[in-house]
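Sample pair:
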Amino acid sequence: MTLAGRGFSCTRMAQAPLLQLSGISLTFGGRPLFDGLDLAVHPGDRVALVGRNGSGKSTLMKVMAGLVEPDRGEVILPPGQSVGYMEQDPDMSGFATLGDFAMAGLEPGELYKVERAAEGLKFDPARPVATASGGERRRAALARLMAEAPDLMLLDEPTNHLDIEAIAWLEAELSQTRAGFVLISHDRAFLRALTRATLWIDRGQVRRQERGFAHFEEWRDKTWEDEDQARHKLDRKIKAEARWAVEGISARRKRNQGRVRALAALRAERANQIRRQGTAALSLEAGATSGRKVFEATGISKAYGDKVILRPFSLTITRGDRVAFVGPNGVGKTTLLKMLLGDVAPDTGGVTQGTGLQIAVFDQARAQLDPQASLWESLTGEPAMRVSGRADQVMVRGQPRHVVAYLKDFLFDEAQARAPVGSLSGGEKARLLLARLMAQDSNVLVLDEPTNDLDVETLDLLQDLLGDYDGTVLLVSHDRDFLDRVAATTVAMEGDGRAVVYAGGWSDYQAQKALTAQGEKPKETNAQAPKVKAAEPRPRESAARLSFTEKHRLEALPAEIARLEAEIAKLSELLSDPDLFTREPVKFRKATEALTQRQDKLSAAEEEWLALEEKAGG
């Protein structure tokens, strides 16, 4: 097996490795993950470990940590070197508090290290282990690792359960450390900022490139392109040799047996090639069209005792909006969402929901999944049966599909259909939740941390699907890259009950916030504590000015217009294929309908912008 990838460094090879895996073979769950694997990690390495969900990333990391014994091969750690692994589900039995666990193995004088990490990662060291959430336990495990400061840190999805502020703290800490680290993460911005090399697991092979994650997709695509070309050449050679065998072997059978054996070897080589796993066949279509106004919140507020969650705040969300809710953990994002959805009553003000709403929710906590139930039961609500009937069907947006066929769309095999949900990896659970979500008719999607544990290819596909979705999307995420790709409006929960609306995604929000910090006048919003009493008459000269909702709409419209123009260009390019109608008539019809809808939306958006711009200038 070759370890070197494009850009491999000979200088790196000359260094004594910090950790070395030699001839590692491992079969996991009945299927071979690695066979004859060799790799090395060197002092100061900053490595992204990437691969499809289920490719063995976490298992390989556990082998490196010494937590999983390979079937064959050895893990070599030089004397005096230390390796630390951040556990996904740390065993805290025997510890009273999270701080006690994080301090284990440290000297009393090193308490400051844990306290500093606890402040950056936002957990209370005094929290009893018995009452701590899974996220708090993971943050304590990460704090323990950071305080121990081993020579090599193995970090498996460290940003899960961290808010954006804590992610920024961790990013700064890792950027300054002298230790080496290997990092698994779904957060592309995090990976791009920190890594200088990439380990890529693909069909049991591990390749290394001496460039960071920012160059991964280019490298992957080039590798696959070269592979496809080599496979094409092999197929042509097999066809040529097979033609010779049919036409010429009878005349010269004895002299050409070697050539016959060579043909058999070529066919065996082709048969032994492991096909790349396809991308999940995700499909997301909006149900019946909702009313134009989806949610209208007017002066809503919320407090629990002395803690103010939200000061009086107004917001209008219209059909097709992509609205992101951002802010630190515990600041009130979920509460605000629940008030919009009608699950929590505001203390003041009210929320009006539009007509014809079909709401589908992606739950960050995976609470919709029963770990004891099978994947089959999770989709149908009934146990798997060998006989034909309702139990082998799942309704997908009103159409029956066989459970196994539908699961295969999301990259699950038939054997997994009857496996318990608890046996799935984090990425597989996320894909199962997407399967449930996309089977529903919906015109409003509520996505709470949908990117956790998903691989790069599935993230890209989900982003494209959301771009083409005709309904409304409400998104809670700490993934900065995903926010930039999806959101057209950002509601920032900035603490002390303040909620401020910004146009665009995460980067746009940061840029606008920076301008405000430099002394420019901040946006006036109802969330910034209206100091004028509601009953006080407005001055006559301001009657023609824009309301808060209109101001926000005027700011958001350019991004919406740009998105519609991009979608129209994409659909026009698709429909320019002269053979599309005969080859895929259903796709042609849907694309034509979508193009007409988007052109209508674009016209309406442009007219609305002109009207608001005229009113603002009036």
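The mean pLDDT is 81.
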